[in-house]
Amino acid sequence: MAGRDEEHITEQPEPTDDDPPAPAHRPAHLLLALALGCAAVLAWYAAFPLTDALPEAQADDYGSAAWFPRALAVGAAVVLVLSMGRRGGALVAGVLAALAGVIGLAGYLTWRHPEVTNWPVPTPMELRPAAPLALSLMCAAVALLCVPLALRRRPWFGISEAAAGRAGAVRRRIQQVMVLLIVGCLLGGALAGAGSLGAALVRGERETLTLPRQEVRSVPEERLYDGALRTPSPTVWPKGVPSERAWEREFDSPVALSTCEREKEDGNGTEVTYHQDTVVGVDDDLAAEGASVVGVDTRTGKERWRYTVPTTRHATVEQVGVSEGCAVLVLVDNSVTTLDAFDGSVRGRLLLSSLHLSEQTNPGGGKGGAWWEFITSTRPRLDDEGKPPRVVPLPGQDYAYLLTPKSTVLAVRKSDGSTAGVGFDDDACGYLVHGRYMEWGQAMVTDDCIGRLRSFGIEEHDGEGETAPLLYGKPQMTSPVPAECGGKGWATAAVEGVDRLLVLYEGCPADRRGAWWVTFEPEPWRDDPMVRWERWTGYSPRIREATQPVHTHTGFVLPHSDGMLVVNDFYRKPSDTRVVPLPGRDPAVAFAMEEVQGINSDRMRDNGLLVLGASGKVHAVVETITGANEFKVADSQRSPVAPVADCQGRTGLLAAHTSPTMLLTCTSEKNGSTKAVAYGGEERAENWYEPEE
User: Fold this and answer.
1) Residues 550-578: pLDDT tens digits?
2) pTM, two decimal places
3) 230 contacts: CB under 8 Å, gap ≥ 6
4) At CA 305, angle to CA 299 and CA 311, rounded to 5?
5) Dihedral sign (CA 138, 139, 141, 146)
6) How crowded is the C-beta side of 394, counted as CA atoms within 13 Å?
7) Cα separation of 430 and 469, whole Å?
8) DSSP letter, residue 115
9) Which of 142, 524, 612, 671 has CB atoms 3.0–4.6 Å from 590's, for a disulfide?
10) Domain-by-domain residue ranges, the chain?
């Protein structure tokens, strides 16, 4: 009897017209259902990064999905589990999963860039989230695999039949469920991961605004002060022209110098000031498909830090601004990152636009040819594609200024890389910025390209809920360009003096062989700020466009066909200008100053000046600060040295302030690559003067 009962239990019931016969039960069916259920449950979490597996930046990049399709996905999982394989349950679960997938896909496809309306302090930008697409892909897989379950008319898990038999059969069924549940969870997780990966692949590279990836290799703490000068103010300057070749290096860009200050407590708890000179340039690593901004010790040539941006369809290092005061700003696509030049750490990152650079329109309204660029104290020399130099020096002030693709001006704080304000589009075709006015803040010059030059101070901006433009402030000093120029010239360089600004105006008249210099003197006690134009005597075609003048104790120093032209800072009449000839009547083309405003301008001593001549020779000039403030040539090279000697491009000169080191550069006009050679020398003895009471 027992045998017949057992035989009766194991026999399959005869099929009927309503319930046709089906194949024997296979555990794979249960495994499939459990995997689908787990995938549907995990689809709920597709709106979030899975646990802590993603870095914060990538988690933000993943985005989120709406709650309704996620609820439908969980509903599909619940129906699959509760129906225990019933045909109707699989059908309902498939419909719910398909509906969730359609809604998720619609959410992905209909996402739009958020509009930025609250400049000058932009809201955080969002990118097209991958989560809705991942949810859609997972739910589509659930819906498709529910089809074979719905086609089976009989339950594939005979729990009632097993319960009617031996207790061991029930126990085996429970063990099978536990094993299949574990395996189903693993397969479900794999399916969810495949959906997320598929979403990332379908979406491709970041299609909307997000900060580009970065790799930061800053100076280790134990080596932070290696080679730094321990002094309240850097005063090291070479005696004569440095001649001992110290190191050389190739860069894939022009280079610039930043002198940094950092305080550290000594063993007695006293704050000690350290200074460090850093040469900054760009290395393009084609093998690794990335570009790096590198900081090199000026004295030793050793690399101190490296900031790398992996190159993608959108992201590459567009331009680098190097400022006195230890700030390095890096433009990558539609973002700017502010670095600390002392150790290479990141001070802040800012998203500039809700569109990639390639998607932005140029001033003419078309796509392409649009870029952000730094406003500097000299007119940029554009390459064959019309782009400015890849590395440029910035004045050592609080703000850095960017010219937007719409020809407006954006101010960025160097301290933390945040937005300070934006100016309106005033149709200017040229901007220069250098120094500050005593009463009106940082100084800017605009060339209206209609025969008019303007200068003004830039108003301060606290950034706390203010929406008014930072630019422009007071005073608005406007002056027509002299008629002799015929509207053919352009402002090429600016330098700060004692509460006044000197601007070079080159390229006029029609033959482009004439030039002027102009001083803007705000004088807040006057109702009519003074603007003075004077012919640039000694202007020579051998003097290249946009040579940066310097300011000394005496006044402004400009290039001259016979050497240097000195313009008294308290200029009143032409006789106050004088020519300082250099050996061989060598026209000056580049200057390197010992005194830098805000770094070491608070001491009284003879002022050192290195001058690079058009011949390629370097001359050491000393300005005495007593009596008539004379300029004396103390030393000159007998012949040009590398890399200037055989340079076929643009030559340059930099000088450190923490060691007697001079850096000569040769920059290719074709691709902007630079060869830099450093020369060390003997430190000049101190020669101090007490200020008069």
Assistant:
1) 888 888 899 998 999 988 876 555 557 88
2) 0.71
3) 272, 273, 274
4) 130
5) positive
6) 32
7) 19
8) P
9) 612
10) 28-111+128-154+173-208, 410-546, 550-639
